[in-house]
């Protein structure tokens, strides 16, 4: 477990300290032995309150919030108002401290210590297992995010080059929220392929069709479909947003209403949500990009 703790100086009641640790007893001892430079001047210290977290990052974020936001700190102290001794209920003089405050642990501190020790002993196995799982999720999220960004960049490059097909058809064929079909030269030959991005379940797929035959035509049977990425979270939200001739290259909120008229499309926003592990991920990863179709001039 990881803990965010609140200390109060036994001699200087106004002085408090917030920190985080994975060992409350050891950390309190270090403060009272003067091993912490920032608290050495006001020792000895007593433990007023603490919060427990399974993940170190959560404890660190909570500590920073308490240190940077006065309201958060005020609420933290308020939760421990019967344990916290302010100026109103202490003599505030270093010469009139009770002997009990200068020796050993108080009953509350002893109870806290026993509770903390018990939780550490009982929870160490589950913490280790959770830690390994959480690390694996983070690594998977980073991998998924990298893959998502590459897909977005490839799509933006292809949509920018969208042009009339090799048989003269309009650059954009379909402009739906979860499917887009357009013509673009995506390889090294001189022909423009028919490109289709679409969502199949939670898998984003890409299909390409080369023009063949005499005269040239795009035969659907020749489409080559590949899986781009799994665990797509856009099952109920759009992947593709379309912008018209009013798009100025910066604002991306004035989307064309559906159903979209392909003749009005001048730019496409690709907005992808990815969930590496629905059971562990805190929230879906989001990657997005906008590609402006260079070969379509505004009216």
Polypeptide structure, described:
- By secondary structure, this protein is α+β, with helices and mostly antiparallel strands.
- It folds into two domains: about 1-105, 3-Layer(aba) Sandwich (GIY-YIG endonuclease); about 145-290, no CATH class.
- The protein is built from four helices and eleven strands; from the N terminus they run ββαβαααββββββββ.
- The protein has helices at about 25-30, 55-70, 70-80, 105-160; strands at about 1-10, 15-20, 45-55, 170-175, 180-185, 195-200, 205-210, 225-230, 240-245, 265-275, 285-290.
- A five-stranded antiparallel β-sheet has the order 4-5-6-7-8, covered by helices on one side.
- Strand 5 (about 180-185) and strand 6 (about 195-200) form a beta hairpin.
- Helix 2 (about 55-70) packs across helix 3.
- It is elongated and about 90 Å long.
- The model is unreliable at about 85-105 (pLDDT under 50).
In terms of topology, how is this protein built?
Layout: E1 2-9, E2 16-21, H1 24-32, E3 45-53, H2 56-68, H3 70-78, H4 107-160, E4 172-175, E5 179-184, E6 193-200, E7 203-209, E8 224-229, E9 240-243, E10 267-274, E11 285-292
Helix pairs in contact: 2-3
What's this, in brief?
This protein has 299 residues and is α+β, with helices and mostly antiparallel strands. It is built from 4 helices and 11 strands.
- Helix residue percentage: 25-40%
Number of self-contained structural domains = 2
Share of β-strand residues: 15-25%
> What ranges have pLDDT less than 50 throughout 5 or more consecutive residues?
87-103
Alpha-beta content class: alpha+beta
Mean pLDDT: 83
- The termini sit apart by 63 Å
Number of strands: 11
General form:
elongated
Series of H and E elements: EEHEHHHEEEEEEEE
Count of discrete alpha- or pi-helical segments spanning 4 or more residues = 4
Largest β sheet strand count, sense and barrel closure: 5 strands, antiparallel
Query: Taking Cα atoms only, what radius of gyration do you get, to the nearest Å?
Result: 31 Å
